[in-house]
Amino acid sequence: MDIKTAQSTEEEKQEVKNLHNKTKQKLWIGSYLLFAIICLLLYFILRLKTFDVIGTYRKTVLSLLLAAACGFGVLILSRIIQGIAAKRSHTKAILYNVTRLIRLISFVIIIFVFISFLNSNWYTAAVSLGLISLLLGFALQTPIASLIGWFYIVLRVPYKVGDRIQVSDFTGDVVEINYFDTTLWEFAGNYMTNDLPSGRLIRFPNSMVFQYQVYNYSWQKFPYIWNEIPFHVAYDSDLDWIENTMRDVAKKELDPETAMHVKELRSLIKETPVDEIEIKEYPFVNIRINANTWVEILLVYLVDPKKSSAIRSNLIKKVLTALLKEPAKVMFPKGDSR
Q1: Which of 171, 194, 216 is the C-terminal boundary of a domain?
Q2: Residue range(s) defining the domain that contains residue 260
Q3: Would you state the pLDDT for residue 209?
Q4: Is a pLDDT exceeding 50 seen at residue 338?
Q5: Alpha-carbon separation of residue 86 from 81, 89, 237, 260, 271 (angstroms)
Q6: Residue 337 above 50 pLDDT?
Q7: Could you tell me if 112 and 233 lie in one domain?
Q8: DSSP letter string, 16-80
Q9: How is 75-120 classified by DSSP, letter by letter?
Q10: Residue 272 is part of a domain; what is its CATH number?
Q11: What would the DSSP string read from start to end of 140-190?
Q12: Which are the contacts of 7, defined by CB distance < 8 A and separation ≥ 6?
């Protein structure tokens, strides 16, 4: 997903477009069906006595042809299931992951089909497959754990493409979720003090979802976070007037629908065991004593995490402009201690 525009990437768009394109779907299914028929025809032709001259290779070729026909049958079924998923899914990111999952399962089934046809003894095939899996398990522990992590991400959806997340020390917007790793477009980081994109990409193994907490700032039911801006004023300022002014400015500058989001949050909290939490009217202002020589007034508001920097900057300018219009009511600390 393109984080700047919150739109799907070209790869996702093309993937989803192809799934919804009935002509292409029929073309793929028709091609697979044609190849399957060709394999079956060759299979029956090679069974004729005329081809006894091939000798010991005849049985292997027949098994390969039959396995190939079954493999094309699996691909046809896979395309049909992908078409059904495309009709029922409304989210491009989820459809993209479901498609990749279906293709992975199809690939595994095709491999199993070929192993089964090439080895007529099921017990021997199972033992061989078990030994190979055991060896690969020891040699490829991290990739296998990452593949299992990918299944967990697809099924449990701790995050999806486009979400802003934090895993361990990595923070960023999810750009891509592959079978073995996840790619983030980093925000903040070592070179930034705000939550703007740093320009760097972070790629981490999917197995990290089992080792660290996943912080998702883009929860589908409530994709907002609380933010606050501190303002410092002198003790003898008109605190009531400052509080009302800051609230009025915030209401004008913030999204008018944000008040509805606060009501949605209240409803969500009521559905949980933590329904005793009090959600104040929005936006609200907290006042506390700073450790130095002034009163600290906090403007607390809801914001889309990807827009927090721009909104914070705009609010600071607007609030300061409004407060400076009344120097008799708003006295800022002066001197070197500021």
Answers
A1: 216
A2: 225-324
A3: 92
A4: no
A5: 9, 5, 61, 32, 32
A6: no
A7: no
A8: HHHHH-HHHHHHHHHHHHHHHHHHHHHHHHHTSGGGGGGTTHHHHHHHHHHHHHHHHHHHHHHHH
A9: HHHHHHHHHHHHHH---HHHHHHHHHHHHHHHHHHHHHHHHHHH--
A10: 3.30.70.100
A11: THHHHHHHHHHHHHHHH-S--TT-EEEETTEEEEEEEE-SSEEEEEEES-T
A12: 1
CA distances from 170 to 34, 182, 314 (A): 48, 11, 27
pLDDT for 123: 60
Task: Give pLDDT, residue 78.
Answer: 86
Residue 2: band (very low, low, confident or very high) from pLDDT cuts 50, 70, 90: very low
Query: Which tops the pLDDT comparison, 38 or 51?
Result: 38
Q: Quick one: 188 and 265 in the same domain?
A: no
- Please, which residues bridge with residue 228 across strands? 300
Give the closest residue to 150 by CA, choosing from 108, 110, 205, 106. 205
Amino acid at 215: Y
Q: Could you tell me if 297 and 322 are in contact, meaning their C-beta atoms sit under 8 angstroms apart?
A: no
Residues β-bridged to residue 2: 7
Is the pLDDT confidence value at 325 over 80?
Answer: yes
35 and 62 inside one domain: yes
Q: Which residue in the block uniquely carries the two structure tokens 């199993």?
A: 112
Give the domain-ending residue among 168, 194, 216.
216
Report cis status (omega within 30 of 0) of the bond before 327: no
Q: Is residue 145 assigned to a domain?
A: no
- Whether residue 231 is contained in a domain is answered as yes
Does residue 40 sit in the same domain as residue 134? yes
| Cβ proximity of 128 and 142 under 8 Å | no
What tens digit of pLDDT does each residue of 265-320 get? 767 666 666 555 566 666 788 888 877 778 889 998 888 887 888 888 899 999 99
Write out pLDDT tens, residues 205-221: 999 999 999 988 877 77
Angle made by CA atoms 152, 210, 157, in degrees to the nearest 5: 30
Cα separation of 173 and 149, whole Å? Answer: 18
Q: How many domains does the chain have?
A: 3
Own/partner pairs for 38-46, CB < 8 Å, 24+ apart?
A: 39/65, 39/66, 39/68, 39/69, 39/72, 40/65, 40/66, 40/69, 43/69
Give the closest residue to 136 by CA, choosing from 145, 144, 126, 128.
Answer: 144
Residues in the chain: 338
